[in-house]
Design a protein that fits this description.
This protein is mainly α. It has helices at 2-26, 34-55, 61-75, 78-90, 94-123. The protein is globular.
């Protein structure tokens, strides 16, 4: 049963990542990987909310598997972030590469902490 929840979440998360990435990137005329940035930060926020909800007893372990492991696992992408950062460096856009690393780390952690704080406020 657990593996099925992960698969179902991933079946939504993977196409959602692709479609969101393409939609966001199409709106920005920049070499900066905005699409990947948006899906990763969004995934961090969702995972923070979910973790806070589970900690407060407002969400089940099954929901954590479905949304946390499945959906967020397929929605977010460290490998694409790494590849795009490497590609930026190789094409001479070192400043964009550095900005991608710093902004992704800061925004991702900030979103996760914010999500957990919101969950604590709502379910505490």
């Amino acid at each position: 049963m657990n593996w099925l929840l992960v698969v179902l979440g991933a079946m939504v998360g993977a196409p959602l990542r692709y479609l969101t990435d393409r939609a966001v990137q199409a709106r920005h005329d920049s070499v900066f990987p905005w699409g990947t940035f948006v899906v990763n930060v969004t995934g961090c926020l969702v995972l923070g909310l979910l973790t806070g909800a589970v900690s407060a007893g407002a969400a089940s372990a099954h929901l954590q598997l479905l949304l946390g492991t499945g959906l967020c696992g397929a929605l977010t992408t460290y490998s694409t972030f790494s590849y795009e950062t490497l590609r930026l460096t190789e094409t001479g856009a070192g400043l964009y590469a550095a900005a991608n690393v710093v902004a992704s780390l800061a925004a991702g952690l900030g979103a996760a902490f914010a999500g957990a704080a919101i969950a604590r406020t709502v379910w505490a």
